[in-house]
Specification:
The complex is a heterodimer of chains A (about 325) and B (about 280). In chain A, about 30% of the residues lie in helices and about 30% in strands. Chain A is an alpha+beta fold. Chain A is globular, with a radius of gyration of 24 Å. The chains are: A alpha+beta (about 325), B mainly alpha (about 280). At the A-B interface, strand 6, helix 3 and helix 5 of A face helix 7 and helix 8 of B. Chain B: InterPro entries: BP-dep_ABC_trans_perm, MetI-like, MetI-like_sf.
Chain lengths: ~325, ~280
């Protein structure tokens, strides 16, 4: 059970500031996801926590103990890398046992822990194989296993699913969710640019932008009460529609945000009217792109397949007034 | 059709020419080494007589066995020390960020620019100063001049290409730089180590100028110098039979080493560690 506390954490490479003062507290046993577009500093922040990068200024504390100058192994962290980073010349067993052997664990203890982790991840059959004899998914499991055996205080994931194909990604995501349930006492930090991974795995999400924390909250908080246009646009797929000028004026705000799933097609009396440009039919749902005269086409999500044809004139209105109002600066407008 | 036949014939003709050029001198040395007396001076391209007298003479004669041992000691030490220093230097030059790193790398490479003859006099003074004159230590020390630049350079480029994540994974596992080099990087670097080690061995084994200059007694000489200084019954007679037998003997270890390591040289070991 480890609390992680970051106070005014900064990181610069030369004159280039990557992390510009992050204050964040991660609760014991929490699954925290860092999410953001590429270049926002999420991986760098994770590497600062890991101890793979030096902290330029600010403090990082595990359970009130400042760990700024400790090495990764002294901090008691384990990390899963995007590219697996297995030792190519060692068998699966040796890969997992390497850290324990370096820590001078007794042979029996090492064996017991490796086998326990292997059973947990169902890789017992591969223990004497080399990484090159495994598939991508199996390799990533070994990488996770190598992290588990060390019984870390803090478990770090750096985009662990990015190299897997779509089907395997969903399966492995589920494995990680199960792992978190089993290791509920271990604090975990997970970096991703995929908002679906963030929403499904996280206890809390930290949205980063240009080296600053944009918003921290549970997935639902971010979805329902985004504290900025950036978060509103980043969480949710397809992204939220933003309307300005006369569309926003009607709601007495500068920028009006409506999610595609909160819009519906009306037979008549719709608030907005426009021509259907394109319908993306996914079977279970359909996304309609409607030109209502705004800067960008309005995206509307409909259940099931759509019967509308491109060129058709449609009326649209928000469901139950489910809208978000933002001021010029992109912050929520005061009611 | 005729075109491809001509092409094929030309190709294999070229192969034959190259193989003959490369192998003939050694072949002729072998068949000459088995001849004795005046038969040596008749030009025959096929083995006509067989006698091991030259080999017996070489091994029995004076200090040849001793000189062979010297060559083995010197070359082995040069290879071991060069690789040890090059691997540790390569780790620093490829993985540790510090000021003047590329300048240092260029300096190391530029050492190999100087012809041996140009550094001979200066090196002679240094070796005298260190008290290494006429010792095997002096040879080992001086051979590093030409083995280290290329071993450092090759291993640095090779180590630079090893995935950073593997190193970081080892750091997270609690490995010190020494553990990373010896237990994570070295096993991945076998192909590079085998290749550079072999080249260093060949260079040290064949070296003549330093060996001639920095030794004075027959007990400390290496084989190339010994062969060059073989004398016949008179000062004007070159004992070709013995020279050829000795040449064959010194070539065999190199051939054996290449055959042993060729698999290592070819194999790529990093496959499977990272994605792909």
């Amino acid at each position: 059970m480890t609390t992680i506390r970051m106070q005014d954490l900064r990181k610069s490479f030369g004159t280039f500031d990557v992390i510009k003062g992050v204050d964040l507290e991660i609760e014991p046993g929490e699954f925290m996801v860092f999410v953001g577009p590429s270049g926002c500093g999420k991986s760098t922040l994770l590497r600062l926590v890991a101890g793979l990068e030096d902290i330029t200024s600010g403090t990082l504390a595990f359970d009130e103990k400042i760990v700024n100058s400790l090495t990764p192994s002294q901090r008691g962290i384990a990390m899963v890398f995007q590219s697996y980073a297995l030792y190519p010349h060692m068998t699966v067993y040796d890969n997992m046992a390497f850290g324990l052997k370096l820590a001078k664990g007794s042979a029996d203890d090492v064996k017991r822990r490796v086998h326990k982790a292997a059973e947990m991840l169902q890789i017992t059959d591969y223990l004497d194989r080399l990484p090159k004899q495994l598939s991508g998914g199996q390799r990533q499991r070994v990488a996770i296993g190598r992290a588990i055996v060390r019984d870390p205080k803090v478990f770090l994931f750096d985009e662990p699913l990015s190299n897997l194909d779509a089907a395997l990604r969903v399966a492995t995501r589920l494995e990680i969710a199960k792992l978190h349930a089993k290791m509920h006492e271990t604090t975990m930090i997970y970096v991703t640019h995929d908002q679906v991974e963030a929403m499904t795995l996280a206890d809390r999400i930290c949205v980063l932008r240009d080296g600053n924390v944009e918003q921290v909250g549970t997935p639902l908080e971010l979805y329902e009460k985004p504290q900025s246009i950036f978060v509103a646009g980043f969480i949710g797929s397809p992204k939220m529609n933003f309307l300005t000028e006369e569309f926003a004026d009607a709601y007495k705000t500068d920028i009006l945000g409506v999610r595609p799933e909160h819009l519906e097609i009306k037979d008549k009396d719709g608030l907005w009217k426009g021509k259907l440009l394109l319908a993306e039919n996914l079977g279970s749902e359909t996304f309609l792109y409607i030109d209502i005269g705004a800067k960008e086409p309005l995206v509307v999500r409909q259940d099931g397949s759509a019967h509308q044809q491109p060129g058709e004139l449609l009326c649209v209105a928000p469901v139950n007034n489910n809208i978000h109002r933002f001021d010029q600066s992109g912050r929520p407008a005061a009611n | 059709m005729p075109m491809s036949i001509i092409k094929n014939t030309a190709f294999y003709a070229l192969v034959v020419v190259i193989v003959v050029c490369a192998v003939f001198p050694f072949y002729y040395a072998i068949i000459t080494s088995f001849r004795t007396g005046s038969a040596i001076f008749t030009i025959e391209y096929w083995p006509t007589s067989f006698s091991v007298a030259n080999y017996v003479n070489v091994i029995a004669a004076g200090s040849f066995a001793r000189n062979l041992l010297n060559s083995i000691i010197v070359s082995a030490c040069v290879v071991t020390l060069s690789l040890l220093m090059a691997v540790t230097a390569a780790f620093a030059l490829s993985r540790v960020r510090f000021r003047g790193r590329s300048l240092l790398l260029l300096t190391i490479l530029s050492v190999s620019m100087f012809p041996q003859i140009a550094v001979l006099a200066g090196l002679f003074e240094i070796i005298r100063l260190l008290g290494l004159y006429n010792t095997l230590g002096g040879l080992i020390f001086s051979y590093m001049i030409f083995t280290l630049p290329f071993t450092v350079w090759v291993l640095t480029t090779f180590m630079r290409d090893l995935p950073v994540e593997i190193e970081e994974a080892a750091i997270v596992d609690g490995a010190t730089p020494w553990v990373i080099v010896t237990r994570v990087f070295l096993p991945l670097m076998w192909p590079a180590l085998a290749t550079t080690g072999l080249l260093a061995f060949i260079a040290a084994w064949n070296e003549f100028l330093f060996a001639l200059t920095f030794t004075s007694s027959t007990e400390t000489r290496t084989v190339p110098v010994t062969i060059a200084l073989f004398t016949g019954s008179s000062a004007h007679e070159v004992p070709w039979g013995i020279v050829m037998a000795a040449s064959v003997i010194v070539t065999v270890p190199l051939v054996v080493l290449v055959l042993i390591f060729q698999r290592k040289i070819i194999s790529g070991l990093t496959a499977g560690g990272v994605k792909g």
